[in-house]
Design brief:
The structure is a homodimer. By secondary structure, the first copy, chain A, is α/β, with parallel strands linked by helices. Helix content of chain A is 45%, strand content 10%. The first copy, chain A, is built from ten helices and seven strands. Chain A has a seven-stranded parallel β-sheet.
Chain lengths: 264, 264
């Protein structure tokens, strides 16, 4: 009953101790989740300590998708949550685990691929990781004592997934089949804009360029972009570049004859 | 704010390993609970391993009420929940952690003293223990894999207590005062892009131009844009236009010296 339902992928980003990877697998499987992805584990892979700790949930480790970096791990995902204890100054919507898993359930029911990122034990997710997420999950812990470890954070999120999907199991949610952009699409869009804007001298002064790029990436990853939006945004940039390279400043019309109307 | 509220007592019944007692203290204090009772701990009391594991939550151990047996620990309690993985044949109401903590909150508000029992690591609560409870809490885990340990069971129950008693836990928390763009801002942005893209020949062929503008406007009005986003998007377009009007195609850097770093 449990594992055949569509479900979010839980992505462990640069996890350090094998024991914690194993504990995360157990926490997930307690609530019927079995799609684990692992990005650049510190001690390599496979990890015997993870296997020993996972015991009955070892299958999750065998089937885990290993990735070298976060963009590779998120290639097929259209909506990404990042868990963090301190939402800091990030301008992204912040959800409780409950609200996040409710939203995840709706999105998954509508055909989206959803991922939840969990950071490394000591430091948590970095700003660059978070810039690839659409929204934040923050567990509302005691402000005087926030000490959830990786396994506990996974446990609470998995628990809420199970709670939300049990509750909505009877409801019928018919969302239109929106063709959402995947992480891969957004990544390609950001790269396209970044390289052209670099050429055009947008990221200036140089000392602020790196920070500006994070702000820029954050903006696009926060937006609910469809594939058609992404196509249009690519088209806008392509046209601005074509226009720039045309010698006749007074001319108009694109250089190729295909036009810019989006497919949809 | 947290610990001065009336709250249930969490009663560890014959706990075995000190580490688990410490982990339970941490789990409780993460969600603002600090009334621990301990019945006949296997390794005596105080327990240095419990203290080491509790770290920042050590106060809970110092203040824990120690009892020789369960009746002594429950002397002042008017309503008792027992946590168990297998509610078995017991003729008692069985609650999810959520429903149980909702009921606990109501009873505590009405002046009752509520306790929650957690059994020893290996075997869980015995029938004799459960016979002293008014109701059962059972976490709805995966029937194929039920492996919550003591600390995890305490964590989920404490989390639900906090959720039931904090109204905002259900809501999306908007961190900080996000400075959202107004309709006026978005309108100005769309006009700016439209007129420049018109110049650049983006809306082509002419027969489709009106439809494309609608799609374009829809895209921006659908996005959760902040003022900073709008500024950045204006800046991108301004820079592309400056670049286009520069005569030296190999040059780089913006023409004005102010740079493009967003305000925030």
């Amino acid at each position: 009953m449990f594992s055949h339902l569509p479900q979010p992928a839980f992505v462990l980003v640069r996890p350090q101790m094998g024991e914690n990877i194993g504990a995360a697998a157990r926490a997930m499987w307690n609530f019927g989740l079995d799609r684990m992805r692992i990005v650049a584990p510190r001690d390599g892979w496979p990890n015997p300590k993870a296997v020993a700790m996972a015991s009955g949930a070892g299958r999750l480790l065998d089937e885990a998708i290993l990735a070298d970096d976060l963009p590779a791990a998120l290639e097929d995902c259209s909506f990404v949550f990042a868990t963090t204890a301190r939402p800091r100054e990030l301008v992204k919507p912040v959800y409780s685990p409950e609200a996040a898993m409710k939203l995840a359930a709706q999105k998954i029911k509508a055909g989206e691929k959803v991922a939840v990122l969990f950071g490394p034990e000591r430091a948590g997710l970095e700003n660059d990781d978070i810039s690839r997420a659409n929204a934040i999950i923050s567990v509302p812990v005691n402000p005087e004592f926030a000490s959830l470890n990786l396994g506990q954070c996974v446990l609470l999120t998995a628990y809420e997934w199970q709670r939300q999907t049990q509750e909505i199991a009877d409801e019928v949610i018919e969302l239109g089949k929106t063709d959402w952009a995947t992480g891969h699409d957004v990544e390609a869009l950001v790269s396209h804009y970044e390289s052209r804007l670099d050429e055009a001298g947008f990221f200036f002064p140089l000392t602020k360029a790196a920070g500006m790029k994070v702000v820029f990436r954050n903006m696009f990853s926060r937006m609910p972009l469809t594939r058609a939006d992404v196509q249009m945004l690519h088209g806008i940039m392509r046209q601005m570049v074509r226009w720039r390279h045309k010698n006749d400043p007074g001319g108009d019309g694109p250089e190729n004859g295909s036009g810019n109307a989006p497919e949809k």
